[in-house]
Amino acid sequence: MSTLTVLIVVIFCIGYLCIALESLTRINKAAIALLMCVCCWTLLMMGPASYYPEVGGCEIMHHISEVIEHHLGDAAGTLFFLMGAMTIVEIVDSNGGFNFVRDTMKTRSKRKLMWRMAFMTFFLSAILDNLTTSIVMIMVLRKLVQSREDRMIYAALVIISANSGGAFSPIGDVTTIMLWIKGVITTQGVLTEIFIPSLVSMLVPAFILQYQLQGKFDKEQNLPKADVSLFTKKQRYTIFWLGVGGLCFVPVFKTITHLPPFMGILLVLGVLWTVTEIFHYNTAEDDTMAKRVSDLLSKIDLSTIMFFLGILMAVAVLQEVGVLTALGEGLNEAFAGNYYVINGIIGILSSIVDNVPLVAGCMGMYPVVAEGAMAVDGIFWQLLAYCAGVGGSMLIIGSAAGVVVMGLEKITFGWYMKKITWIAFVGYLAGILVYWLQRMLLF
Fold it and tell me: Global pTM?
């Protein structure tokens, strides 16, 4: 490994560490990711000939520009998909589309609420995403549960259920979106083979946690309906089903047209935007739809988009200099090609550091082959989708859902590690075991 390559790896590791310690440094991880990306590419440009010996001296700069544009194009597909999905969810939520979620979960039994919440979170996160679903469910819990101790247990299960639900859907988690867009997993493959392991990884922790919740809520604790005066109930249902149904339709659109997934998201966004504009046109409000959509677009978390851009482009540098390929070969030699162990370790690591760069790194470390564990929908890629998604539940900082719940409910790292980590780990291992049994007996 050359000195320049070592410097690139060091810069990447320092940036990675700063991202993992964001709660201590209080520097937004998006800023670190962008700096890390630019520094890594700048270092590569100091000695490009050593990485592209087959390219002539005069053409090397043009070649590197093409390489950057290629990686940027891959990253842009993921980013536009995320922005479109976030906008759709924001439109549905701001227009009262999720009100029925609150009404459906109303009950006096603490355990009934826990199971309803677990299943609702699990399936909603597969359709929306684990971050958005976590926010919606925490807002519902605040209306239903007054006891802070009880609500922390519910919130912990929200994290586990959201991450488990996102793992079996191609659009449920950023990591599965990345793998799906890359083409290493398919909609049918991940739904049929990862669904049961993901469900088990949610059911086992829920079964354990239910014994910490006993009795009923006070009669006075009723679920108030959200005040939405602008649209009728029928219009809100229309917005909900257009948004959620449209997100479910995206994989179908990709299969039919063979267009990139972000094109399907843009189609759904365009339809939903048009329908809500018609609804607003028939209201007596002076405000225009253009202004409303502008307000909604301003609520999209662009810092998250910038973070993904920086991470994906920084990982691309490691791929170009050959570090990821060498690391992949090293893991294969160390564990004799046991993909259950390799992915199990990756899942545990995803609870410590962000799973986005981990998955991006794995996509660069391992090539897609025609058949075997590394083929499309092979054991390695499906296990990677499961482990990277579900593994993030083991620590509260291990997933976007955990971080947002930590902020909303002020749950401490220590409380979660003491009370929840071992429970999430048991569910994680149970899911891997179920996947192994499926592969042995069914597939």
Answer: 0.71
